[in-house]
Write a structure and sequence with these properties.
The complex is a heterotrimer of chains A (about 290), B (about 425) and C (about 350). In chain A, about 75% of the residues lie in helices and about 0% in strands. Chain A has about 290 residues and is mostly helical. The chains are: A mainly alpha (about 290), B alpha/beta (about 425), C mainly alpha (about 350).
Chain lengths: ~290, ~425, ~350
């Protein structure tokens, strides 16, 4: 029984991390209708910067907020300089540009900081909670991660659902010409969307860094599962990203614990395909298909 | 009309591609009796994971070897020839390994391949190298599969293979932890499986209560560590690379699980592991979480600054590989390079590929270097070091104890102490024939 | 202009001519090149086989696949098992690889036909990372992390003792490529090709016209999966290996990049893409080593250049290399037509830039 509890808790904590990455991807998709493969590269860079700040000043929270600020700036910069030029064209072009950016960012990080992974401090203790003499596989830092992810998901959902700004961003993504005619500054909406998404991404980066270490390629597995979680939950839905992340985290944890680590990626495939066959738009998709 | 254009374009493009490839190439075709050797130089090639998930730690090895070669070259080289090492990046992808090794042999005309790194990568080029009769010196991997002198005459291992290490560790456990439950956390490849096989060879099956593997590339090993903890194991044996040793320790810390840690020499380098655990050790060196871990070694510990070999390698590193930390990987690269230089010196001024291979087979077992045990080199054995010495992490450094032991990597073969004297480096730092 | 060569009107004959002309060019190229370049030619050729199918899938049928690396793995392991364990001959083994690829394509395509856009991308990405894991799980059959090694293909005695193995491998791969060129070229210009385009452009209109959308999309997947299986089988023959490390996500992403860079939907684009896949890493390595930089920088510089090239190429040539070449060609023709008009020579009318993809 303790094994099951441990695996469930582990699934929730790893799932929260996937959800954080998924939220960033959902953010960009809703705002600009692009799948941003470079998300991983961007959050890796901001986490490196945070690591340097923490290393030189000794303050975790300073590094934390510097990472978020850098995320905002980096996201806006990438959108303005690169993505703006491919936004109107075939969707695959934006995908290739994002892939190219990911490769470029990982290489640049390797050149500046080297390929050796480094340690990153957690915000809070990683000592598991003591319940009746047994230590759980869940620590204060995991609670912090889960709460932050839930908070961000709620904030994004509120933003898109209830605010004027969110409406304008959605309109810019779905029907840019019409939005322009209605007076929406579509370009600014795109830039804002990317900036906010990169902010969420940086948050994901500092949350996950303690358990994957900081290095050019260290975030790749988290990214892949984050993307899977986003697709699983529905790319249009922040709550979907969270649910997708947690579901994925739980499934992978159980499979790894009961069946063995070699089946983990296969399990991710099975879960994703199973869900998508039933709901081709993800768990929280709202589209109704009309069959002719 | 369209078809005419199509055909012309198709034919043209194929020739264009061919022309581009020709234009991009260097000289091809050796023609010399010993390719890669001139009056003033010897050129070796190697394939290494310089970038990508396998790069951490391993990417330091080849530059360290190159640093030692630079040192030797500055002292006159080998019979007046400077040693050059062409380092190619294969990103631990066997497809790239095949491509770069073909490029090294067919286009760059290297004399031999040196220190090719990785088992899934190097196994894909062993056939090619042996059929082309290219010396495949001192593969950087502990797979027992390099040890086939009859079928793979040109391939030589260097480090003690994983089965040998597992056996010595297993015997130590049998002697000092009899009756205690043992859990094994291992990488799911030849390294982990080989080590586990060695442990199983020495310990009774009932003592190993849990054996959990992980896939390299994963970031979540908590299910595996939690399973080992639930099995009640009092000893945790790690056949892991440093990142996973550290990850395993983090989970153990969360769970309050404090077994006796036993770690392969591959995954215990305190500088590397300590660096990954630094933020959990309250600002200290970061080795608190691995303090007291039992391990093994086949060379002096890289932190043992009083050892003359370490002093020599540190001097070389400070001059020729400044940006690297001095850790186990750098020591490995330099020690392997030292062995190669010894072999080249023994092969003599008239250097051919066959002579190099023959001299290692005939005289390799007598080579004296930083290793604590002799090499297992003969006509049939191409294995590399034949044993290890036990060690422990004390005060954040590895301290070796108990004396080196040698064995054969076959099941059931005895483990015997090796009593030969330790050697010192030559005063110039360069081996003489 | 067309009097120089009698061009047959039937698609079948033209495809055959195309294949034979390509074959002749490959033959000549392989004779001119050294052993290492022959290996590169062989590699480029098996990449072309995969890319030809993938560009048809993504360009003509509009389905994004991030999982073709896994389908290549299927073909490679099939060949490795059949040739290594069962000692099959080369041609039957390659045919089996194609068939197995197609079979897997049926399953994947059927699932894929229900998905669109990023959801299809996500599902195929999961395929790319999940399927090779089977090799690690069933390590007894598939060799685990080390994978399988097979013996090099035996060079026929009739070619002489000193015939380089690499050239023979290039010929084998070339033969497969010719078959693919023939089949794909026919397919693209046939009714099937038209129905692919129809479904891509407007699913509802296509289904109103009587096309079964799911079946058409699955067919496209099956054909591209067959190509990927054959390409993977060729990889196993040329490199004599099948290992999980060779079929990581990076491969699938590189395939996608190659077809977009080369020119989406176009067979010539697939050739450019294959050339980029093989040559660009080598060029970036050479470029990086021509400066004397620190180890850390020079190890990462090739990838940095590669990433920058990807970004730059997409910004400057949004239709890929083939698109850029077509524009240059069209501009050249327009200026030559304009020149003739200026000189008072009316041209024979037509001959506008061909819009249909090659």
């Amino acid at each position: 029984m303790t094994r099951f509890i441990d695996l469930t808790l582990n699934g929730i904590s790893t799932g929260a991390v996937y959800a954080a990455v998924a939220l960033a991807l959902v953010m960009i998709w809703r705002a600009t209708r692009i799948v941003n493969f470079a998300q991983g590269g961007m959050l890796m860079i901001t986490t490196f910067i945070a690591s340097d700040v923490i290393g030189s000043t000794g303050s975790y929270w300073l590094g934390f907020f510097v990472a978020l600020a850098c995320g905002l700036v980096l996201g806006a910069l990438v959108e303005r300089v690169l993505i703006r030029r491919v936004e109107g064209g075939p969707p695959l072009n934006a995908v290739i540009v994002a892939l190219g950016l990911l490769i470029l960012l990982e290489a640049v990080a390797g050149m500046i900081w080297g390929n050796t992974p480094r340690s990153f401090p957690p915000a809070f203790s990683i000592r598991g909670y003591d319940v009746g003499g047994t230590r759980l596989l869940f620590a204060p830092n995991d609670t912090f991660t889960v709460l932050v992810v839930l908070g961000v998901a709620v904030a994004l959902w509120l933003l898109f659902r209830f605010t004027d700004l969110g409406l304008r961003m959605r309109a810019s993504a779905l029907a840019p010409e019409v939005a322009r005619l209605l007076g929406v500054r579509v370009g600014r909406m795109f830039t804002l969307g990317w900036a906010l998404a990169a902010l969420v991404g940086s948050l994901a980066g500092v949350l996950v860094a303690p358990s994957v270490f900081v290095g050019p390629s260290q975030f790749d597995p988290v990214l892949i599962f984050g993307f899977t979680a986003a697709v699983l939950g529905g790319l249009d839905s922040p709550p979907g990203a969270v649910v997708g992340g947690v579901v994925l985290g739980l499934v992978l944890s159980y499979v790894s614990g009961y069946e063995g680590a070699s089946l983990v990626t296969l399990a991710a495939l099975v879960v994703l395909v199973a869900v998508l066959m039933v709901r081709p738009g993800g768990l929280f998709s709202t589209r109704r298909e009309r069959r002719v | 009309m369209r078809a005419t254009r199509l055909r012309a374009a198709c034919g043209g493009c194929a020739l264009l591609m061919a022309a581009a490839v020709i234009a991009g190439c260097g000289s091809s075709g050796g023609g010399a009796s010993a390719p890669g050797v001139t009056a003033t130089s010897i050129t070796f090639g190697t394939h290494q994971p310089l970038t990508g998930p396998a790069a951490p730690g391993y990417s330091e090895i080849a530059p360290a070897s190159q640093a030692y070669f630079d040192y030797v070259n500055a002292h006159g080289g080998v019979y007046g020839r400077k040693i050059h090492l062409i380092i190619k990046n294969d990103e631990y992808n066997p497809t790239n390994t095949v491509t770069v090794v073909h490029e090294l042999v067919l286009k760059d005309n290297v004399f031999g391949i040196f220190e090719g790194l990785g088992t899934p990568t190097h196994t894909k080029v062993v056939g090619f190298l042996n059929s082309e009769k290219v010396p495949d010196m001192f593969v950087a991997s502990g797979c027992p599969c390099w040890d086939k002198g009859a079928e793979q005459p040109y391939t030589f291992g260097w480090q003690p293979n994983y089965t040998i290490e597992g056996k010595v560790l297993g015997q130590y456990l049998k002697q000092h932890f009899a009756g205690k439950k043992v859990g094994v956390f291992y990488q799911d490849d030849d390294f982990g499986n080989g080590g586990l096989a060695g442990i199983r060879d020495e310990l009774p099956a009932s003592q190993i209560v849990s054996a959990q593997s992980y896939q390299p590339g994963t970031t979540n090993v908590a299910p595996e560590i939690s399973a080992i903890k639930s099995s009640g194991a009092e000893v945790l044996v790690d056949f892991t690379v440093p990142i996973y040793t550290a990850l395993g320790q983090l989970t153990s810390y969360t769970l309050g699980y404090k077994p006796q840690l036993v770690v392969s020499n591959v995954g215990i380098d305190p500088t590397t592991v300590g660096g990954l655990l630094k933020t959990y050790s309250k600002g200290k060196a970061g080795t608190e979480l691995i303090e007291g871990a039992i391990t093994d070694g086949y060379m002096p510990a890289s932190s043992d600054t009083s050892n003359p070999w370490i002093a020599l390698f540190r001097k070389v590193k400070d001059e020729y590989d400044k940006s690297a930390p001095f850790d186990g990987n750098v020591e490995y690269g330099m020690a392997t390079a030292y062995t190669l230089v010894q072999a080249l010196e023994l092969a003599g001024k008239e250097l051919t590929r066959e002579k190099l291979v023959d001299v290692v087979e005939e005289k390799g077992a007598e080579l004296k270097g930083p290793g604590l045990v002799p090499f297992r080199y003969s006509k049939t054995e191409h294995g590399g070091y034949g044993g290890v010495e036990m060690g422990q992490v004390r005060g954040g450094k590895i301290v070796l104890f108990g004396g080196p032991m040698v064995t054969e990597p076959t099941a059931g073969s005895p483990i015997t102490p090796y009593t030969g004297a330790e050697s010192s480096p030559p005063s110039s730092g360069v081996p003489s024939p | 202009m067309s009097a120089l060569v009698r061009v047959p009107r039937s698609t079948l004959a033209r495809s055959l001519g195309l294949a034979l002309a390509g074959g002749a060019a490959l033959l000549v190229a392989s004779e001119l090149l050294g052993s290492y370049q022959d290996l590169q030619l062989a590699s480029g050729t098996y990449y072309f086989i995969v890319l030809a199918g993938l560009t048809m899938l993504t360009g003509l049928s509009g389905q994004i696949s991030l999982g073709h690396g896994a389908l290549m793995a299927v073909g490679a392991y099939t060949v490795a098992l059949l040739v290594g364990n069962e000692h099959w001959a080369l041609v039957p083994a390659l045919a089996a690889a194609t068939a197995v690829g197609a079979a897997v394509g049926v399953a994947v395509g059927a699932a894929a036909s229900r998905l669109r856009g990023p959801y299809l991308a996500g599902a195929t990405l999961a395929l790319a990372i999940g399927l090779p894991a089977l090799a690690e799980k069933y390590s007894g059959t598939f060799g685990g992390a080390n994978g399988l090694v097979i013996n090099p293909p035996a060079v026929p005695a009739g070619l002489g003792v000193s015939f380089p193995l690499e050239r023979w491998e290039a010929w084998i791969a070339g033969a497969g490529a010719l078959v693919v060129v023939f089949v794909i070229n026919n397919l693209v210009r046939s009714g099937v090709g038209r129905s692919l385009r129809a479904v891509r452009d407007d699913e509802i209109a296509a289904s109103l016209c009587g096309l079964h959308v799911g079946r058409v999309q699955t067919l496209a997947f099956v054909v591209s999966a067959a190509c990927a299986g054959l390409g993977g089988g060729m990889l196993a023959v040329v490199l004599q290996l099948a290992a999980p490390g060779a079929f990581q996500l990076q491969l699938s992403l590189s395939l996608l990049t190659a077809i977009v860079l080369g020119g989406l939907g176009s067979q010539l684009g697939a050739i450019w893409g294959a050339a980029v896949l093989v040559l660009l890493p080598t060029w970036t390595e050479h470029l990086s080593h021509s400066f004397s930089l620190s180890q850390q920088v020079s190890a990462n510089l090739p990838l940095a250049i590669y990433g920058a090239v990807l970004i730059g190429a997409m910004l400057v040539w949004p239709s890929g290399i083939q698109g850029a070449l077509r524009r240059i060609y069209a501009a050249a023709r327009r200026s030559s037509v304009g020149l003739k008009r200026l000189e008072g020579n009316p041209t024979s009318g037509s001959g506008g830039a061909g819009n249909e993809s090659n």
